[in-house]
Write a structure and sequence with these properties.
This protein has 484 residues and is α/β, with parallel strands linked by helices. It has helices at 37-46, 81-100, 111-131, 148-155, 172-175, 181-188, 199-213, 244-252, 254-266, 286-298, 321-341, 358-367, 382-390, 421-433, 436-452, 455-467, and strands at 8-16, 19-23, 29-33, 51-56, 67-69, 72-77, 132-141, 160-164, 193-196, 217-218, 221-225, 231-237, 272-279, 307-314, 349-352, 370-373, 397-401, 414-416. The protein has a ten-stranded mixed β-sheet, with helices on both faces. Strands 15-14-13-16-17-18 form a six-stranded parallel β-sheet, with helices on both faces. Helix 3 (111-131) crosses helix 4 (148-155) and helix 10 (286-298) crosses helix 14 (421-433). The longest helix has 21 residues, at 111-131. It is globular. The structure holds 6-O-phosphono-beta-D-fructofuranose. 6-O-phosphono-beta-D-fructofuranose (F6P) is lined by residues 15-16, 142, 166-167, 316-317.
């Protein structure tokens, strides 16, 4: 007889588990905690209560047995080759991702993709219910799992359910294109509380419920059903952040500072080192950035070795056609610019198609005089917050697109509209030319903001909003106060 499954007061569910599989020289398999801010935030909330994390271990086939890593109980969810192709690459990243990011590339709709999405969401819901203790708090993450809240509610009416969207939530005119719009809204409305990056995202959701489901709404609250089963669901903004203390500590380490110096030296100690660090995704505006930089090179406003632009493009979703096309396009453009503008010993654009560990990223941030963050649409953009965090020297300048969530918090950035190439060029030049003492003042203010609103505060705010979510039928809790 198999041992009874352990149950937990807090259950996190995200598409991926917070671990990477490591195969040793003898073929032995172990797991390394992935260095994301989300893990740090969850570690901080799990210090006070027993927690489990439900997610995919990143490879198709049978799921590994549950295991404990960094004091977290990890419950892997299996994913077949077909699930990966239809649920993850298909529905999540070929249908929902483009619709939720302003249709920068066209969305593809396939009924069999959505069938896989439902199937995998159900598998997640069942795994959550298996490890959730009576009355547990269940926190579901992101667009891959939008049907999970209602599925969990149906199986386990005793638990409290929250969902947080890491990406934008689209305006109703775009959302309405989805053939499965009703199922998605009803799936999300299974939650007690829904968190979004921006106020506009929460409002888009509330409007979609009103216009597409005909539900009554008042402010940030949606009434789901009437009569004895009446339930209200609140949707509001709780912008995500990063582990300020942990990352700043890393950036302050002598090794990181020495590595930053070494990076600059290896690039010939340019007057200005410009940096872009992005997942290779069409939402990030890498092409617009390269176009603007290319024109500045043509006009002689920047030139190697005096100015060097380093673009790190982390490989991502490489089996999805739009991502393959993007890679080809970007690499073609970089090749052309380098052919036209590089000098012996100094490339105009250093393009690195790699993922780097956290310490190397911190060194790159410290080395860069200007960070270019130019997405066409981005839920938050944590790279912007990481840069600010690493600049304990108050050096550097941040060029930031107004189409990121971070723009709503980092008001002292050099703000750009990446579609306006002329404007983007001027903003880049301003970021290069503004006197250091003025830039230090701007950086100081942005650092204060991120230090005060770090990822731990974000997690606590989310859980507090969830615990104060409108009362359910049959409970006598007084109406909640409105928490910003
Ligand atoms: O925030 C959006 C997101 O899809 C996250 O869920 C994920 O951690 C990240 O982007 C990377 O995406 P993927 O898991 O598809 O590699």
């Amino acid at each position: 007889m198999s041992a009874p499954t352990q149950t937990f007061d807090l259950v996190i569910a995200a598409n991926r588990l917070p671990v990477d599989r490591v195969v040793g020289p003898d073929g032995d398999v172990s797991w390394r905690t992935s260095p994301g801010g989300l893990v740090t935030a969850m570690e901080s909330v799990m210090r006070s209560r027993e927690g489990a994390w439900v997610g995919w271990a990143g490879e198709s086939g049978d799921a590994p047995e549950p295991f404990v890593q960094s004091d977290m109980y990890l419950r892997p969810v299996a994913m077949s080759e077909e699930d990966v192709a239809h649920y993850y690459e298909g529905c999540s990243n070929g249908t929902l991702w483009p619709i939720y990011h302003d249709v920068i590339v066209p969305a593809t709709f396939h009924r069999f993709w959505f069938t896989a999405y439902e199937r995998v969401n159900r598998r997640f819901a069942e795994a959550i219910c298996e490890v959730a203790a009576e009355g547990a708090t269940v926190w579901v993450h992101d667009y891959q799992l939008q049907l999970v809240p209602a599925m969990v509610r149906e199986l386990r009416p005793d638990v409290r359910i929250g969902w947080f969207n890491h990406i934008p939530f689209p305006p109703v005119e775009l959302f309405a294109q989805l053939p499965w719009r009703r199922a998605l809204l009803e799936g999300l409305l299974g939650a007690d509380y829904l968190g979004f990056q921006r106020v506009a995202d929460a409002q888009n959701f509330v409007r979609a419920c009103r216009q597409l489901l005909g539900l009554p709404t008042k402010g940030d609250t949606i009434s789901v059903s009437r009569g004895a089963n009446a339930r209200r669901v609140r949707a509001s903004a709780v912008p995500i952040s990063i582990d300020f203390v942990g990352l700043q500590e890393l950036a302050r380490m002598p090794e990181t500072q020495a590595r930053a110096k070494e990076i600059r030296e290896s690039l010939g100690n340019p007057d200005t080192l410009l940096l872009g660090i992005d997942r290779l995704d069409y939402t990030k505006g890498i092409g617009h950035r390269i176009k603007a930089y290319g024109e500045l090179l043509e006009e002689g406003k920047v030139a190697p070795p005096r100015e060097i632009f380093v673009q790190v493009a982390t490989p991502s979703r490489e089996r999805v056609a739009a991502y393959r096309d993007l890679r080809q396009e970007i690499e073609g453009e970089v090749g052309r610019l380098n052919g036209d503008h590089s000098v012996i010993g100094s490339a105009a654009v250093q393009y690195l198609h790699h993922a780097y560990p956290r310490d190397e990223m911190a060194a790159l941030y410290l080395a860069a005089d200007v960070l270019l963050v130019t997405p066409l649409r981005d839920g938050m953009n944590l790279v912007a917050k990481e840069y600010v965090t690493c600049r304990h020297d108050e050096g550097g300048a941040l060029v930031l697109s107004e189409f990121t969530g971070a723009f709503h918090e980092l008001h002292q950035a050099f703000v750009c509209n990446p579609h306006d190439i002329e404007g983007l060029k001027q903003t880049i030049m301003r970021a290069i030319e503004t006197p250091d003492k003025d830039k230090r003042r701007l950086m100081r203010a942005m650092r204060r903001r991120v230090a005060d609103h770090d990822v731990q505060r974000w997690a606590h705010r989310f859980l507090e909003n969830l615990s104060h979510a409108p009362e359910r039928p049959g409970t006598s809790k007084a109406q909640h106060e409105d928490r910003p």
